[in-house]
Amino acid sequence: MELTGKNIMGSTSSAKGETLFYASNPSTGQQLNTPYHEATLQEVDEAITLAEVAFTEYREKTGSEKAAFLETVADELAALEQEIVGIGSQETGLPVGRLTGELGRTTGQLKLFASLLRDGSWVDARIDTADSNRKPVPKPDTRQMQIALGPVGVFGASNFPLAFSAAGGDTASALAAGCTVVVKAHPAHPGTSELVGNAIINAAKKSNMPNGVFSMVHGASIAVGQAIVRHPLIKAIGFTGSFRGGKSLFDEAARRDEPIPVYAEMGSTNPVFVLPGALKENHEALATGLSGSVQLGVGQFCTNPGLTIVPEQEEGNLFENVLKESISNAESATMLTDSIQRAYNSGLEKLRSKEAVDSISYGKKGEQQAQGIPEVLSVSANDFLSDKDLEEEVFGPSTLLVRTQDKAEMVKIAKGLNGHLTATVQGTETDLVEHADLLKILERKVGRLLINGFPTGVEVCHSMVHGGPFPATSDSRMTSVGTAAITRFTRPICYQNYPDTLLPDELKTDNPLNILRLENGAYVLPDK
Amino acid sequence: MELTGKNIMGSTSSAKGETLFYASNPSTGQQLNTPYHEATLQEVDEAITLAEVAFTEYREKTGSEKAAFLETVADELAALEQEIVGIGSQETGLPVGRLTGELGRTTGQLKLFASLLRDGSWVDARIDTADSNRKPVPKPDTRQMQIALGPVGVFGASNFPLAFSAAGGDTASALAAGCTVVVKAHPAHPGTSELVGNAIINAAKKSNMPNGVFSMVHGASIAVGQAIVRHPLIKAIGFTGSFRGGKSLFDEAARRDEPIPVYAEMGSTNPVFVLPGALKENHEALATGLSGSVQLGVGQFCTNPGLTIVPEQEEGNLFENVLKESISNAESATMLTDSIQRAYNSGLEKLRSKEAVDSISYGKKGEQQAQGIPEVLSVSANDFLSDKDLEEEVFGPSTLLVRTQDKAEMVKIAKGLNGHLTATVQGTETDLVEHADLLKILERKVGRLLINGFPTGVEVCHSMVHGGPFPATSDSRMTSVGTAAITRFTRPICYQNYPDTLLPDELKTDNPLNILRLENGAYVLPDK
Asked: Which of A251, A477, A498 has the CB atom closest to B491's CB atom?
């Protein structure tokens, strides 16, 4: 399949700009062939204007129509598996198996949102009927549901070229909400994005969706992204990436004449607390499990366990030894981009340069370029507590081991934590009872709390929270993974005294869509 | 009942500051006796620190315990009715009947949130159970629910000294969410606030709530409010007031090291569209009804109809005449404060000074101070469309009549609107069918759409939306009235692989609270 390097403006393509950029293969360092045309500001404006026009039509599509569209996107992507995975692995250095799995997750996400739309109850329908006899004034009929915000800007993420990119969770949930989408393709995998973008366009045509329901622009500089965030017709932003990138979008959006919500998932160090009993019973399996979680995806997961808190007991030393051994036997692997690999190295260098921190184990460097070498560093709890830098994310396959003297130190560390996506506690039943206070503290710090597991691996389901207090995200009230992600792109509206015929089907008195509703304060759940 | 003029720091009071201010009776212009102590920055910090300490305990209270607390607040307020209404009418110039009604609404809100807590289903519980046989990796058990954000800062509003003030909707919903609250009392009714604040403290004691679950500080300068918004332990802000005030809090919060959500309801002009058929059938009742809605509460409602769009047909002139007649017979009334009255006058003056705008009718000035005189102004659609100033809220009993040549002009006006809290359409069945496009446009502009009613009067119920796109509010995704307001102060958390005993009751497998849950994608609604 020939790549064009052009911007996707609804059903047409456009390449007005003269600024070109190229992807490269991180494992060889070689530049790939296709030149990509950075979108001009005019092209960004055209794409967004088209998204606004399309929105007035797309928002009126029924849930089933939108569901069919999402399912068709999934089908189109599945049909292109070989091409997508082929170009994807060239552009990202990720193994074919990983990309195949990620494509499955991506199509699965689309289908999950489709099923949410077919069910229909997600709109949180609420009906309070009129009471003309109420004193002192009659009670009006009021009905509420969620409606779409408008055109949404989505920023593709580097670390999940499929599941968090052009047709990833942000796009899927925004389209499901009834929003049109303008994607800023991540410049590290523009070819993958083009294939995926074209699949969405094909699906839109097949499903009779309005032209402009989806567009995608390229850009290697920050100008394109800024233009999206600043555009008055854009009503929300989805982003997964670095703190610096996410925070600058947040600030930009807050400075607009009309501020808009920015859902920026900005990374996290995902502390793992190993409790004394679990350590005693199970130090070997815990250390091996942690080593695997640290290395998964070359540590390029938002939920990578970058911080491990382990008591200073004898088995803590054994745990440390097993972990060191495991990491020292580990092979390096190609990171997503050259610059990510350089950032990983400089993050480690910054840690190593601290007097209080020791590098205690590292893996083997492979032959290819942009190698991320697994590494374990160590620091005492006391030193950790006195240096906020040590909590910062180092994006890559490393973890900082913090050794604690006692429970009080562990609790103190937990209390001092910033917001993270996840926290994990490894503990026996007794441990967990004895550390109930620790769990309560961690509840205030994260979006997801795991017991006896590892944070890598984010299940796409109704109950997932991939989010958490700042600085993990810019909006702790939301999740970017799972079906609850849809409400990032909606707001409630109330219809007062509306004739039944003018109401949306979700709110008509006889409940034609057969959805769950809150009717005069009681949940009514029709048989399905 | 003796007023102390002191800040309420949980169960103690404090008056460390040397800056004093006084309330005054707007109808006489006379200063009232009690000196109020503006809180020092240290007192603000103490109140918030106390709220943080209390939060760790308060968030663990069961729904029933929190419900009992809210109900006790309502009882305490009802028991103080005479005192509250007495001081309230002195401080605000509002009639006793209105304040009595507003107190009923305030206690009603508290009880409604209590009933929401007793039902328990508001937490949006979601459960996806484990599947150890799933390939390629086992599926973990994940469970999600909403939890409280932390201490919340609430700014009392001038225009509803009870329902949007110390124990108003923001406080009630934040306490219901499980947050502790620090109120900044509105300096125009500090005595009313003190009585209400004391009632909350008494209820907290009687209900065994932790000291610091509620505090209230005074301040006539902006320093106190800024200190609340800037305080790192404050996790969200509720505000109802002017655009300038709300936007400055929003900006302040966005600039924090850790940005926090600000729910600012910043006012709105609440356009009313009168369609040709309704006008033909019913011009007299419509004009009289509008006149009443404009004057209600001396026009000091966020939902006051400040903009009325009426076709240039014969009955449009008749409508205008009836409205003029009605307003010219109307009496002025005392506004909430001297400065609100001055702002009303200067807002009108700004309108009148425009060449395109005519003042076509005004009411009679009464004897008392701070009189708001009802007024109708008029402008052609064409002139309205060319001057964005004309859409701005003039807080008080006035409306700007916009006369349109045809449907196209009406649609153009709708398309050009900023965000508002409400829009109203007066129309016959035929009108509504013929103006379906107008309704669709308005849907994107407001939080509540009314047919054949008037926007004043905000029902407190499950389906109400008192919110809307910017600049009506700073966050269109939320409502400040009705039970959905509770989610402003919560965020989702996911528990992964948690032992049942450690899960909150809302998520335990056997559903001990008997709440609605989404279990493996299916809504499960136990019999109650």
From this structure: A477
Show residues of chain B in contact with A149, CB under 8 Å.
476
Strand partners, B310: B403
CB of B264 closer than 8 Å to CB of B227: no
SS3 B241: coil
Q: Do the Cβ atoms of B140 and A453 come within 8 Å?
A: yes
Tally: H helices and E strands in chain A = 15, 25
Residue A107's closest CA among A77, A86, A67, A130?
Answer: A77
Q: Would you say the pTM of this structure is higher than 0.95?
A: yes
CA distance B494 to B490: 13
Give the residue among A250, A95, A243, A77 at the shortest CA–CA distance from A163: A77
Give me the pLDDT at residue A474, please: 98
Distance from CA of A128 to the nearest CA of B (A): 6
Q: What would the DSSP string read from start to end of B124-189?
A: -EEEE--BTT-SSSPBPPEEEEEEE-S-EEEEPPSS-TTTTSTTSHHHHHHHHHT--EEEE--TTS
The secondary structure of B307-360, three-state, reads EEEEECCHHHHHHHHHHHHHHHCCECEECCCHHHHHHHHHHHHHHHCCCCCEEE
CA separation for the pair A469, B229 (Å, rounded): 17
Q: Which two three-digit tokens encode residue A85?
A: 């995975």
CA distances A264 to A71, A437, B147, B469, Å, are 26, 30, 21, 21
Sheet holding A181-184, edge to edge: A12-14, A7-9, A214-217, A181-184, A152-155, A236-240, A262-265
Label residue A183 left, alpha or beta by phi (over 0 means left) and psi (-120 to 50 means alpha).
beta
Which residues in chain A are contacts of B142 at CB distance < 8 A? 448, 459, 461, 463-464
Both tokens assigned to B482 = 């009705």
CA B18 to chain centre: 32
Cβ distance A463 to B143 under 8 Å?
Answer: yes
The residues that bridge with B30 in the sheet, in sequence order, are: B25
Q: Which residues of A touch B479 (CB under 8 A)?
A: 492, 494
The label of the residue with tokens 């981009």 reads: A337
Label each residue of A218-254 as H, E or C: CCCCHHHHHHHHHCCCCCEEEEECCHHHHHHHHHHHH
* A272 Rama sector, left if φ>0, alpha if ψ -120 to 50, beta otherwise: beta
pLDDT digits (tens, 9 = 90+) for A354-387: 999 999 999 999 999 999 999 999 999 999 999 9
CA distances from A487 to A67, A85, B312, B351 (A): 16, 31, 42, 40
Q: Rounded to whole angstroms, how far apart are CA atoms A131 and A115?
A: 36
Selected for mutation to probe chain A from B61, B128, B463, B503 (highest A CB count within 10 Å) is B463
Contact A254 B258 (CB under 8 A): no
Is B302 a known active-site residue? Answer: yes
Place of tokens 């900082």: A400
Express each pLDDT in A265-309 by its tens digit: 998 999 999 999 999 999 999 999 999 999 999 999 999 999 999
Strand (E) or helix (H) holding A325:
helix A314-328
Q: Using DSSP, how many helices (H) and how many strands (E) does chain B show?
A: 15, 25
Contact partners, residue B388, CB within 8 Å, separation at least 6 = none
Q: Helices A81-92 and A63-79, interaxial angle, to 10°?
A: 70
Q: pLDDT tens-digit profile of B296-339? A: 999 999 999 999 999 999 999 999 999 999 999 999 999 999 99
Identify which of B12, B36, B405 has the alpha carbon closest to the alpha carbon of residue B188. B36
d(CA B506, CA B517) in angstroms, rounded, equals: 9
Plot region of A93 (φ>0 → left; ψ -120 to 50 → alpha; else → beta): left
Longest dimension (CA), chain A: 82
